[in-house]
Amino acid sequence: MQLGQVAVYHRAGASKEKRDAEPELDHDLPYLGRHKRHVHHHERRGAVTVTQTAYTTSTRTNAATPTPGCDWVRTSYYNAATGEADNIVFLNHMGGTNGSGSWDSCFGNTLSYAGCNGVDGAGSPQVLANCVIPSNQEVVLFTAEPCDAGCGYSRPGTPAHKGFSTASDVVFLVDFMMPRDPGSGFNIDMSAAWFLNAQIPRTLQYGLAECSCWVSGCGEFDVFEILSTGSDYLTTTLHSWQGTGTQFGGGGCADYIARPLAGYMKAAIIFDAKTSQFVITVIDPSTAFGAGLSNSQVASWAGVPGSVVNIP
């Protein structure tokens, strides 16, 4: 998978307190039903994980005063081509290997700062280069704001950062492509992008699932995923223990989006805090990830038939 841009927007009128409030969410923040090989908390697929948080998050913006007509303010931004990264850090699961994070024989690697290639660990925050994240590797996106006491428990030595708040309405814009991986082996050529409750990677994303909240309620929201090697179809699945009696509960549908193999695809993921709905839709490739958005622009994306899904 290759990232081009990522931008996060919150409503310009939302107070800091509202943006930082704890959301009513117990599942993870991005069908064919549950696939027996589909257990993301034990897999790495050439993937990007975006963390949401049940705690506070940064309110930095790229524009101190939004331009007229901007009802939504950009609070985080990344651009691979220019190397710009505002209020965003890139982590992976290489703790203890190159100057950040830690490792122990019981629980393995913690999170670490990711090297610019997304694969290696690093001793300090690095900006992800304009590169392809290979199969069975994962980059985890957090805000640049370090955790405070409100984040709760983090494994000792973990570079702990706050996730992206979904306490109030929020829009994620992403620009990415998923080129083929001609290799062979486990999880080859199965790119994915998903949202994960920030508590999970700060404790234990890979290893004993009962050591994090994955199986007890946090769940996982797979926004764009490929379910089989070589597939040209991106599907969406929400996994949650709640109300299902099993960690593999949740659901999806048979709808799909064509995989962007040779060029970048731009998409919007919109969370509506009041109605507990989210929207996933492909947007015009000319869309600018600017300092702000208008209500009419967001409404046009939310109004695409079939794009709205209720969160149970």
- Major sheet characteristics: 11 strands, mixed
Secondary structure: number of strands: 21
Which blocks of ≥5 consecutive residues have pLDDT under 50?
A: 21-42, 54-66
Shape: globular
Category by helix and strand content: mainly beta
Number of helices: 4
In N-to-C order, the SSE pattern is: EHEEEEEEEEEEEEHHEEEEEEEHE
- Approximate strand percentage: 25-35%
Termini gap: 29 Å
Average predicted local confidence, pLDDT:
82
How many structural domains are formed by the residues?
1
How much is the radius of gyration in Å? 18 Å
Q: Outline of this structure?
A:
This protein has four helices and 21 strands.
Protein described:
The two termini are 29 Å apart. This protein is globular. It contains 4 helices and 21 strands. A hairpin with a 4-residue loop joins strand 18 (265-272) and strand 19. It is 7% helix and 32% strand. The chain has one domain (2-310). The protein is mostly beta strands and 312 residues long. The protein has helices at residues 16-20, 199-203, 214-218, 295-302, and strands at residues 2-11, 47-53, 72-79, 84-86, 89-92, 103-104, 108-109, 112-114, 121-122, 138-142, 164-165, 170-177, 192-197, 220-225, 233-239, 250-252, 257-258, 265-272, 277-282, 292-293, 308-310.
